Amino acid sequence: MTQKEKAKLVPVSREPALLTERDADKSPVLECIDLGITFGGLKAVDNFNVTIGRTEITGLIGPNGAGKTTVFNLLTKVYQPTHGTILLNGKDIHDLNTAQVNRAGIARTFQNIRLFGDMTVEQNITVAMDTQMHYTMPEGILRLPRFWKEEHVMHERAMELLSIFHMEDLANAKANSLPYGAQRRLEILRALATNPSLLLLDEPAAGMNPSETAELMENIRSIRDTFKIAVLLIEHDMNLVMNICEGIAVLNFGHVIAKGTPEDIQNNPEVIEAYLGKQKEA
User: What pLDDT, on the 0 to 100 scale, is given for residue 122?
Assistant: First the structure.
Protein backbone atom coordinates (compact mmCIF):
# COMPACT_ATOMS: atom_id res chain seq x y z
CA MET A 1 0.00 0.00 0.00
CA THR A 2 1.47 3.35 -0.98
CA GLN A 3 1.61 6.26 1.47
CA LYS A 4 -1.25 8.10 -0.18
CA GLU A 5 -3.58 5.08 -0.25
CA LYS A 6 -6.11 4.90 2.55
CA ALA A 7 -7.25 1.61 4.03
CA LYS A 8 -10.78 0.43 3.32
CA LEU A 9 -13.23 0.64 6.22
CA VAL A 10 -14.93 -2.63 7.13
CA PRO A 11 -17.65 -3.49 9.68
CA VAL A 12 -16.57 -4.98 13.01
CA SER A 13 -18.74 -7.47 14.83
CA ARG A 14 -18.61 -6.11 18.37
CA GLU A 15 -20.81 -3.09 17.51
CA PRO A 16 -22.18 -1.25 14.47
CA ALA A 17 -18.87 0.48 13.80
CA LEU A 18 -16.30 0.68 11.02
CA LEU A 19 -12.57 0.14 11.37
CA THR A 20 -9.79 -0.01 8.81
CA GLU A 21 -9.03 -3.46 7.48
CA ARG A 22 -5.62 -3.51 9.19
CA ASP A 23 -7.25 -2.73 12.57
CA ALA A 24 -10.40 -4.84 12.28
CA ASP A 25 -8.90 -7.79 14.18
CA LYS A 26 -7.63 -5.63 17.05
CA SER A 27 -9.46 -3.92 19.88
CA PRO A 28 -10.01 -0.21 19.13
CA VAL A 29 -7.86 2.41 20.79
CA LEU A 30 -10.90 4.60 21.53
CA GLU A 31 -14.62 3.99 21.95
CA CYS A 32 -16.99 6.83 22.83
CA ILE A 33 -20.44 5.62 23.78
CA ASP A 34 -23.30 8.14 24.07
CA LEU A 35 -20.82 10.76 25.25
CA GLY A 36 -22.19 14.19 26.10
CA ILE A 37 -21.96 17.31 28.21
CA THR A 38 -24.50 19.94 29.22
CA PHE A 39 -23.66 23.50 30.21
CA GLY A 40 -26.50 25.18 32.09
CA GLY A 41 -29.13 23.24 30.23
CA LEU A 42 -27.43 23.61 26.83
CA LYS A 43 -26.34 20.30 25.29
CA ALA A 44 -22.95 21.21 23.83
CA VAL A 45 -22.29 17.58 22.81
CA ASP A 46 -24.95 14.90 22.89
CA ASN A 47 -24.79 11.15 22.23
CA PHE A 48 -21.37 11.30 20.59
CA ASN A 49 -20.45 7.82 19.38
CA VAL A 50 -17.20 7.02 17.62
CA THR A 51 -14.81 4.07 17.42
CA ILE A 52 -11.20 4.51 16.30
CA GLY A 53 -8.85 1.71 15.27
CA ARG A 54 -5.37 1.37 16.69
CA THR A 55 -3.59 2.90 13.66
CA GLU A 56 -6.42 4.88 12.09
CA ILE A 57 -6.31 8.52 11.01
CA THR A 58 -9.74 9.97 11.71
CA GLY A 59 -11.15 13.41 11.05
CA LEU A 60 -13.66 15.30 13.19
CA ILE A 61 -15.21 18.11 11.16
CA GLY A 62 -18.16 20.45 11.38
CA PRO A 63 -19.13 24.12 11.34
CA ASN A 64 -17.71 26.58 13.86
CA GLY A 65 -19.39 26.02 17.21
CA ALA A 66 -20.38 22.44 16.37
CA GLY A 67 -18.66 21.07 19.48
CA LYS A 68 -15.43 19.68 18.04
CA THR A 69 -13.00 21.15 20.58
CA THR A 70 -15.50 20.31 23.33
CA VAL A 71 -15.14 16.66 22.30
CA PHE A 72 -11.36 16.95 22.66
CA ASN A 73 -11.84 18.53 26.08
CA LEU A 74 -14.08 15.63 27.09
CA LEU A 75 -11.57 13.04 25.88
CA THR A 76 -8.74 14.70 27.82
CA LYS A 77 -10.91 15.42 30.90
CA VAL A 78 -10.60 19.17 30.70
CA TYR A 79 -14.38 18.76 30.99
CA GLN A 80 -16.02 15.89 32.84
CA PRO A 81 -18.78 14.33 30.71
CA THR A 82 -22.36 14.75 31.88
CA HIS A 83 -23.15 11.32 30.49
CA GLY A 84 -21.64 8.55 28.40
CA THR A 85 -18.53 6.38 28.45
CA ILE A 86 -14.98 6.76 27.13
CA LEU A 87 -13.00 3.56 26.70
CA LEU A 88 -9.28 4.05 26.07
CA ASN A 89 -7.53 0.83 25.11
CA GLY A 90 -10.59 -0.97 26.45
CA LYS A 91 -10.51 0.73 29.87
CA ASP A 92 -13.12 3.13 31.22
CA ILE A 93 -11.38 6.42 32.03
CA HIS A 94 -14.30 8.16 33.79
CA ASP A 95 -12.37 8.50 37.06
CA LEU A 96 -9.13 9.86 35.55
CA ASN A 97 -8.04 13.49 35.53
CA THR A 98 -6.25 15.27 32.67
CA ALA A 99 -2.73 14.26 33.71
CA GLN A 100 -3.79 10.66 34.27
CA VAL A 101 -5.47 10.50 30.87
CA ASN A 102 -2.25 11.70 29.28
CA ARG A 103 -0.26 8.99 31.07
CA ALA A 104 -2.90 6.46 29.99
CA GLY A 105 -2.25 7.27 26.35
CA ILE A 106 -3.99 10.40 25.02
CA ALA A 107 -1.90 13.41 23.98
CA ARG A 108 -3.16 16.56 22.28
CA THR A 109 -2.31 19.85 20.66
CA PHE A 110 -4.43 23.01 20.90
CA GLN A 111 -6.03 25.55 18.58
CA ASN A 112 -3.98 28.23 20.32
CA ILE A 113 -0.35 27.16 20.62
CA ARG A 114 0.66 26.46 24.22
CA LEU A 115 4.43 26.17 24.23
CA PHE A 116 6.83 27.29 26.93
CA GLY A 117 8.08 30.28 24.99
CA ASP A 118 11.16 31.09 27.10
CA MET A 119 12.37 27.50 27.08
CA THR A 120 14.39 25.99 24.26
CA VAL A 121 12.89 23.76 21.61
CA GLU A 122 14.57 20.72 23.17
CA GLN A 123 13.40 21.66 26.67
CA ASN A 124 9.81 21.90 25.43
CA ILE A 125 10.07 18.27 24.38
CA THR A 126 11.98 16.90 27.36
CA VAL A 127 9.59 18.51 29.84
CA ALA A 128 6.93 16.14 28.45
CA MET A 129 9.10 13.17 29.41
CA ASP A 130 9.13 13.83 33.16
CA THR A 131 7.02 10.80 34.03
CA GLN A 132 9.43 8.57 32.10
CA MET A 133 12.42 9.56 34.25
CA HIS A 134 13.27 7.43 37.27
CA TYR A 135 16.15 9.13 39.05
CA THR A 136 15.46 10.35 42.57
CA MET A 137 15.53 13.94 43.80
CA PRO A 138 18.88 13.44 45.59
CA GLU A 139 20.35 11.90 42.43
CA GLY A 140 19.19 14.95 40.50
CA ILE A 141 20.47 17.48 43.04
CA LEU A 142 23.85 15.77 43.37
CA ARG A 143 24.09 15.05 39.64
CA LEU A 144 24.85 11.37 40.23
CA PRO A 145 25.54 8.97 37.33
CA ARG A 146 21.93 7.82 36.98
CA PHE A 147 20.83 11.44 36.55
CA TRP A 148 23.28 12.01 33.70
CA LYS A 149 22.40 8.69 32.07
CA GLU A 150 18.69 9.53 31.96
CA GLU A 151 19.36 13.11 30.86
CA HIS A 152 21.33 11.66 27.93
CA VAL A 153 18.44 9.35 27.07
CA MET A 154 16.04 12.33 27.09
CA HIS A 155 18.36 14.33 24.84
CA GLU A 156 18.65 11.49 22.33
CA ARG A 157 14.90 10.98 22.35
CA ALA A 158 14.26 14.71 21.82
CA MET A 159 16.65 14.83 18.87
CA GLU A 160 15.00 11.74 17.39
CA LEU A 161 11.61 13.45 17.58
CA LEU A 162 12.97 16.71 16.15
CA SER A 163 14.31 14.77 13.17
CA ILE A 164 10.72 13.95 12.15
CA PHE A 165 10.25 17.60 11.15
CA HIS A 166 13.95 18.21 10.34
CA MET A 167 14.23 20.60 13.30
CA GLU A 168 17.39 19.26 14.96
CA ASP A 169 19.31 22.47 14.24
CA LEU A 170 16.67 24.42 16.20
CA ALA A 171 17.12 22.41 19.41
CA ASN A 172 18.70 25.30 21.31
CA ALA A 173 16.46 28.06 19.92
CA LYS A 174 13.85 29.64 22.17
CA ALA A 175 10.39 28.31 21.31
CA ASN A 176 8.94 31.81 21.00
CA SER A 177 11.54 32.69 18.37
CA LEU A 178 10.24 30.07 15.93
CA PRO A 179 7.99 30.90 12.97
CA TYR A 180 4.32 30.04 13.49
CA GLY A 181 4.43 26.84 11.44
CA ALA A 182 7.49 25.59 13.31
CA GLN A 183 5.76 26.25 16.64
CA ARG A 184 2.84 24.14 15.42
CA ARG A 185 5.20 21.31 14.56
CA LEU A 186 6.98 21.59 17.91
CA GLU A 187 3.68 21.24 19.75
CA ILE A 188 3.02 17.99 17.87
CA LEU A 189 6.46 16.69 18.82
CA ARG A 190 5.94 17.58 22.47
CA ALA A 191 2.70 15.59 22.42
CA LEU A 192 4.52 12.61 20.89
CA ALA A 193 7.12 12.76 23.66
CA THR A 194 4.51 11.40 26.10
CA ASN A 195 4.33 8.14 24.08
CA PRO A 196 0.60 8.29 23.31
CA SER A 197 -1.50 5.59 21.72
CA LEU A 198 -3.93 8.28 20.49
CA LEU A 199 -2.80 11.69 19.25
CA LEU A 200 -5.40 14.49 19.13
CA LEU A 201 -4.55 17.31 16.72
CA ASP A 202 -6.67 20.47 17.00
CA GLU A 203 -6.39 22.31 13.67
CA PRO A 204 -2.76 21.34 13.00
CA ALA A 205 -2.68 23.13 9.63
CA ALA A 206 -3.95 26.47 10.97
CA GLY A 207 -1.70 29.29 9.76
CA MET A 208 0.28 27.05 7.40
CA ASN A 209 0.76 27.76 3.71
CA PRO A 210 -0.10 25.10 1.08
CA SER A 211 3.46 23.77 0.96
CA GLU A 212 3.64 23.43 4.74
CA THR A 213 0.21 21.77 4.79
CA ALA A 214 1.27 19.21 2.16
CA GLU A 215 4.38 18.43 4.21
CA LEU A 216 2.24 18.13 7.34
CA MET A 217 0.04 15.51 5.65
CA GLU A 218 3.05 13.37 4.86
CA ASN A 219 4.40 13.82 8.37
CA ILE A 220 1.12 12.77 10.00
CA ARG A 221 1.16 9.58 7.92
CA SER A 222 4.78 9.03 8.86
CA ILE A 223 4.00 9.54 12.56
CA ARG A 224 1.16 7.00 12.35
CA ASP A 225 3.34 4.46 10.58
CA THR A 226 6.47 5.01 12.70
CA PHE A 227 4.82 5.05 16.12
CA LYS A 228 1.89 2.72 15.27
CA ILE A 229 -0.62 5.10 16.88
CA ALA A 230 -4.02 6.48 16.02
CA VAL A 231 -4.62 10.12 15.11
CA LEU A 232 -7.85 12.07 15.59
CA LEU A 233 -7.75 15.53 14.07
CA ILE A 234 -9.98 18.58 13.89
CA GLU A 235 -9.32 20.55 10.74
CA HIS A 236 -11.06 23.08 8.49
CA ASP A 237 -8.75 22.43 5.54
CA MET A 238 -10.93 20.01 3.60
CA ASN A 239 -8.13 19.11 1.20
CA LEU A 240 -6.07 17.84 4.14
CA VAL A 241 -9.01 16.02 5.72
CA MET A 242 -10.17 14.30 2.55
CA ASN A 243 -6.66 13.27 1.54
CA ILE A 244 -5.35 11.96 4.85
CA CYS A 245 -8.31 10.67 6.87
CA GLU A 246 -9.55 7.11 6.55
CA GLY A 247 -12.70 7.75 8.57
CA ILE A 248 -14.54 11.02 9.23
CA ALA A 249 -17.19 12.00 11.77
CA VAL A 250 -19.23 15.15 11.14
CA LEU A 251 -20.58 17.19 14.05
CA ASN A 252 -23.39 19.71 13.84
CA PHE A 253 -24.87 21.37 16.94
CA GLY A 254 -23.16 18.76 19.12
CA HIS A 255 -24.59 15.77 17.25
CA VAL A 256 -22.84 13.38 14.87
CA ILE A 257 -24.80 13.70 11.63
CA ALA A 258 -22.60 11.43 9.51
CA LYS A 259 -19.73 8.96 9.78
CA GLY A 260 -17.86 7.17 7.04
CA THR A 261 -15.09 7.35 4.47
CA PRO A 262 -14.11 10.66 2.84
CA GLU A 263 -16.11 9.60 -0.21
CA ASP A 264 -19.19 8.91 1.94
CA ILE A 265 -18.90 12.31 3.60
CA GLN A 266 -18.37 14.22 0.38
CA ASN A 267 -21.55 12.72 -1.06
CA ASN A 268 -23.75 12.98 2.05
CA PRO A 269 -26.55 15.53 1.44
CA GLU A 270 -26.90 16.39 5.14
CA VAL A 271 -23.18 17.13 5.38
CA ILE A 272 -23.23 19.20 2.22
CA GLU A 273 -26.06 21.29 3.63
CA ALA A 274 -24.71 21.64 7.17
CA TYR A 275 -21.02 22.05 6.49
CA LEU A 276 -20.02 22.33 2.87
CA GLY A 277 -22.98 24.54 1.88
CA LYS A 278 -26.33 23.82 0.30
CA GLN A 279 -26.32 22.41 -3.20
CA LYS A 280 -27.59 24.91 -5.71
CA GLU A 281 -30.59 23.93 -7.73
CA ALA A 282 -29.95 23.47 -11.40
Answer: 94
